[in-house]
Structure formats: structure tokens, C-alpha cells
Amino acid sequence: MTAVELSRLAIGVLGGTGPQGRGLAYRWALGGLSVVIGSRDARRAEQTAASLRERAGSPRVRGTDNTSCAAEADLLVVAVPFDGHAALLRPLRKSLAGTIVIDCVNPLGFDGRGPFLRAVPEGSAAQQAQALLPESRVTAAFHHVSAVLLEDAAVPKLDLDVLVLGDDREATDLVCALAAVIPGVRGLYGGRLRNAGQVEALTANLIAVNRRYHTHAGIRITGV
């Protein structure tokens, strides 16, 4: 799917008022896509959307509550802290039936020794999303994209690959195309949803790299 074709779709972002969701929404707005920011507080969502409209120079960003965002989205990104993940998705099952859901939640904990992966009964945050949304087309992607770089208008392009996982090949191909809207980014198929745990866990390693080397590390896959 081309960027022109993607521009006909509504990209919903639950957690769009947080750094990761807001950064992704900003880049997609710059790419000319239609973006709907979702939040528990519709007023806060619209305030974020207004800021993004100004920064991206695009009128195609609006804010609303989570339920309305889920109902309107053709593709829906979940970018919330893991502690609120299940509670957010559980009531949206009906609204998201048939929708491509992109889960980028990293179930991480932090202690005095740094970041670590938290145990998820379903195996990963993405698998938890699929269990809660059995009628949705759940994918996992955008775990390793720096929110700082996404939001920085002085960074014209990013240097990284986005691993996209899922059991629906049409859905993963569409998410790969969505990743490619961000300059410098490639979306690459990374396997079945059952392998999402490894991708989520890698975020802890990247945070450790960032802290040691004072950077915003991403990943590149060679030979592709």
C-alpha cells in the first residue's frame, strides 16, 4: 500500500497524549495521514491534536475519547503504559472487531539495576491484546522507536527498522507500509505474534544502551 492509499485511512492512536503515541502521530501527520488522538480525557486529546496540527502544518489531526477513537480508526495504535493495557482494551472489544490493532506496548519494570521484562501470562503484551480482542487483527510494532527523536522537529529522518509481527499477513504488510511513511524508517516482517515477547524484551536492552552511551538507539536488520 502506498502513502497515498494510506492517506484514505484513519490512524487512531490510543495513548496519543503520551510521548510515544504523540511522536508517532506527529510523524504520520507530517506524512499527510489522517490521525485521531485517543485519551481518557477528550479535552486533553483535542489539546494535543491542536498542538500537532500546528507543528505538522496539517489539519488532519483531531482528538477524542478512547471509545470514539477506537470506533473511528481503520488502524489503531496502542501506545499506553503496560499497567493500563488490559483495562484500556477490555471494553473496546466490540468497537475493534475486524480492526487492525498495532500494539507497541513494552511490559517493562525498573529497579535499581535498570530495566527488565515483566512476566505476562499470555506471553507478551501483544498476545494479551489478541486475547482481549479476539475479533481484531492484532499486530506488534514500533517498540524500538525513540519518542524523543519522533517528537524532535530538528530530526528530519530516523535511522532504524521497525519489526512488525502478526498472524495476518495482509495486516503486517499494511503496518510495514505505515512505518515507511516516517522518513528513514523501514517496516520489516518479524514473525508470528507468538514471537512478540522477544521484540518487547529487546527494549530493555536498548534502554540500557541509551543510558550508557547517552543516545537514542534503534535497530537495523542487515541483508534485507
Low-confidence stretches: none
From the spread of the alpha carbons, the general shape counts as globular
Stated plainly, the CATH topology is called: Rossmann fold
CATH architectural type: 3-Layer(aba) Sandwich
SS strand fraction: 15-25%
CATH superfamily: NAD(P)-binding Rossmann-like Domain
CATH class: Alpha Beta
Nearest-integer average pLDDT: 96
Question: Roughly how many Å apart are the termini?
Answer: 19 Å
Largest beta sheet: what is the strand line-up? 3-2-1-4-5-8-9-10
Give a short account of the largest sheet: 8 strands, mixed
| Topology pattern, helix = H, strand = E | HEHEHEHEHEEEHEHEHEH
The helix tally amounts to 9
The level of helicity is 25-40%
Strand tally is 10
Features:
224 residues, alpha/beta, Rossmann fold, 8-stranded mixed sheet
What's this entry about, in short?
This protein is an alpha/beta fold. The chain is built from 9 helices and 10 strands. It has a single domain (3-213), classed as NAD(P)-binding Rossmann-like Domain (Rossmann fold), CATH 3.40.50.720.
How does this structure look, described?
- The chain has a single domain (3-213), classed as Rossmann fold.
- It is globular and about 40 Å long.
- It has an eight-stranded mixed beta sheet with strand order 3-2-1-4-5-8-9-10. Strands 6-7 form a two-stranded antiparallel sheet.
- The protein has helices spanning 3-6, 19-30, 42-56, 66-72, 85-89, 125-132, 147-151, 169-180, 196-213; strands at 10-14, 34-39, 61-65, 75-78, 100-103, 108-111, 114-117, 137-140, 160-166, 185-191.
- Helix 2 (19-30) packs across helix 3 (42-56).
- The chain is of the alpha/beta class and 224 residues long.
